Model the fold of this input.
Amino acid sequence: MRRRAKKLIALCAALAILLGLYASVATLTADPEEESEPVTVASLTADDLVSLKWTNADDGTLELVRDSSEEDWSYVGDGDFPVDQNYPQAMLTALEDVSASLEIDDPSDLEDYGLETPGMTITAKGADGTETVFSVGNENELTGEYYLTCSAQEGKVYLVDSSLTDAFAYDLYDLVKMEDLPSFGQTDTLT
Done:
């Protein structure tokens, strides 16, 4: 009987050790993205925006404007320039929900994040004249995300995915609305 009790105690101790090891491994291998909720940096209403201006270190500054939410977007430098309206629509969609995977309160030095002289600056202006400015800095080499500041959230740096920068990664000639050319079947002559 005593021998059985010793075996039972040894088996219980082994089970406790195995459960402890399992809990440790589960904690260490847990996906950190599952645990953290995205942080909302800004949520802009697309219908309220009347100006989109972005500066890219390589391409310079571009600005699109409209008088109201029912009107098409036009290029500030030339009102007759044919702007493909799909581009400003994609930009508005990106601005409706700017979320971050990480929020850094009171960053020590903006230069560490590439935000002293940002690679891209995006300014969204509402019909009431309020402007929201996003500054995009360096890419985090580990996560592939970008450091960002927002004028509506001063004193904070965020880590965001590339969806915002991708929506504004265009120069003027990328925005051209191409004419629809008729398609021809088999032709004998063309005049």
Observations:
- The beta strands are 39-42, 49-56, 60-65, 74-75, 98-100, 102-105, 120-126, 131-139, 146-150, 156-160.
- The chain has a mean pLDDT of 85.
- The first strand starts at residue 39 and ends at 42.
